[in-house]
Amino acid sequence: MLDLIEFLALGSFLGLAAGTSPGPLLAVTISETLQYGKWEGIKVAVSPLITDLPIVLSVLYVLSHLKSYDFIIGIIAFFWGFISHIFRNRITENQKRQS
């Protein structure tokens, strides 16, 4: 049970940090609030909750049905590990070129 609480706390802190960091959505929210009022800004700020909810639910549904398929999960993990390795190498090469 402690692991679940730790994961929830970590996810909450990471979500809070990501949600409060400046970005395009914050700029649009401020712009809409200043142009059209508080309620339009609230609509823009709440829109990710509405648009992301179907994606999160579908991913959770698929993952809940893949619990017993260790081989498929292993292939997915290997694939994403390989992709992240490629991106890391490209980023490292670009940083070396810029130095």
Describe what this molecule looks like in 3D.
With 99 residues, the chain is mainly α. The protein has helices at 2-20, 24-36, 38-65, 70-98. The mean pLDDT is 86.
- Tell me the β content: under 5%
Uncertain ranges? none
Order of SSEs, N→C?
HHHH
Overall 3D form: extended
As a whole number of angstroms, the C-alpha radius of gyration is 19 Å
Helix content range? over 70%
- Give me the number of helical elements: 4
Number of strands: 0
> Structural class, from helix and strand content?
mainly alpha
Mean pLDDT: 86
Distance between the termini: 48 Å
Name the quaternary structure.
Answer: single chain
How are the secondary structure elements laid out?
Elements: H1 2-20, H2 24-36, H3 38-65, H4 70-98
Q: What's the quick description here?
A:
The protein is mainly alpha-helical. It has four helices and no strands.
Looking at this protein, list some descriptive labels.
mainly alpha, 99 residues, 90% helix, 4 helices
